[in-house]
Design goal:
Blueprint lengths: L12 H12 L3 H20 L4 E3 L3 E8 L2 E4 L6 E4 L2 E8 L1 H10 L12
Antiparallel strand pairs: 1-2, 2-5, 3-4
Helix pairs in contact: 1-2
Length: 114
């Protein structure tokens, strides 16, 4: 069984704001503003090549990827892939443990066909 076959829900910005409203008692408007501000701060810091470390959650970093020659796997045509900066995320050990502990779908690596 592949992890790609597992149905997963998507959490949106609005869902985070609604959850914050329920947890804190703030209005939905205030909760949305706070969520937007948090994402804005993270985006701004990453655009300035700063590391964003959120304790018990993980670390966001930017990484430069130089231009390279790539290949379309279907047509085998080669093409130049432009240089770019990508965002990487490394999950904290705390969050990794929590995900593995509470995961609805635990996959035994020995049973996965490679």
């Amino acid at each position: 069984m592949s992890s790609r076959n597992i149905k997963q829900d998507t959490i949106t910005r609005d869902a985070i704001a609604k959850s914050m409203k329920l947890e804190t008692g703030l209005s939905i408007k205030d909760s949305t503003v706070i969520v937007d501000q948090i994402f804005s701060i993270i985006s701004q810091q990453l655009s300035e090549n700063n590391i964003v470390k959120i304790r018990h959650f993980g670390t966001f970093k930017t990484r430069y990827k130089p231009a390279r020659l790539g290949r379309n796997p279907k047509t085998l045509a080669t093409a130049m892939i432009a240089a770019r900066t990508v965002v990487t995320f490394k999950v904290s050990p705390n969050l990794k443990n929590k995900i593995n502990l509470y995961s609805k779908y635990t996959i035994n690596p020995r049973n996965v066909n490679r």
